[in-house]
Amino acid sequence: MDAHHNTTEPIPAAEEIAEDGETALREDAYWHENLRLLSGLMAIWFAVSFGAGILFRDLLDQFMLGGYPLGFWFAQQGSIYVFIALIFYYAWRMKRIERKYDLDD
Questions:
Q1: Distance from the Cα of residue 1 to its chain's centroid
Q2: Which of 7, 16, 26, 63 has the most other CB atoms within 10 Å of its CB?
Q3: Which has the higher per-residue pLDDT, 6 or 78?
Q4: Are the C-beta atoms of 60 and 70 separated by less than 8 Å?
Q5: pLDDT of residue 7 exceeding 80
């Protein structure tokens, strides 16, 4: 066949290629930042719930909070409060990230 053989598929305009490439890069950056945020928040949640409530409980029980040993408090209530705070922080931060990448509603 000839090297200059015409195909039946239309070739997209340069603007369409640039926009699609830009959109794909923006979405990749968005997901990268989203996953980095999730990883950080999950690490905090793990450290508070498993670390403070179980692993370091004996060490933290030397201190008191509201009349209860601190390790016990984290195991029973503290990790729940931290989890709720992380949810609110995630929602607030995701709105900012979505605006940054022009992906908000």
A1: 52
A2: 26
A3: 78
A4: yes
A5: no
